[in-house]
Amino acid sequence: RGAMNLASKSIKNNPHNPRAYAVLARSLALQNRLEDSARYYQRALDLDLKDRNIYAELGSIYDVLGQYEKALKTYKKYLKKNPHDADFHNQAGLSLVALKQYDKGYQHLEKACDLRPANLEYRKDLVYTLIENMELKKAEKLLKEMRQKNPRSIDIMHLQVRLKLRQNRGDDAQKLLQEILALDPENPDAKFLLKRIERLLRPKSNY
Q1: How far apart are CA 122 and CA 60, in angstroms?
Q2: Which of 51, 97, 168, 183 would suit a FRET pair with 194, their CA atoms being 20 to 30 Å apart?
Q3: What global pTM score does this model have?
């Protein structure tokens, strides 16, 4: 509250101080007052603040609020002057995926991977998008490469499960879930999915 009070006083003394709006916005976000926080972040940007963190934090808040078009606009505004920022390409891609604009989202996600090829999180987001857009052969190829380099990655194995289910390969999905549980016996997602798949694959009785 101390930072918020100081920022409020600073704004009162100088209503054109972008830093004060940014501090106030951050304090409001910490209190989960996201709509108010977004409004003050936007005011800071309107005053031509060039701070990368402000763009990232405002975009993130819009994403949490489900206001994906506003989030996308924020990320793209930053990318216009900073076209080689991998994080912003990734975030823009995820916002587009949330809007079901998979092809456009894929372009940004692929750009993020090109800019930072060693970043596994970007590749996971890219594969998820391919699966959601039913580009299953591309997804399968990427997942095979990723699994070879990270054979014990449970996140990658979960993506493989998702892929197998989209391919109607329940037996393969079941085996992968068993592998996950061998590595992490209490994994809740794997336990839940395995029970569902086992019920679906169970032979139906004639009685």
Answers
A1: 16
A2: 97
A3: 0.86
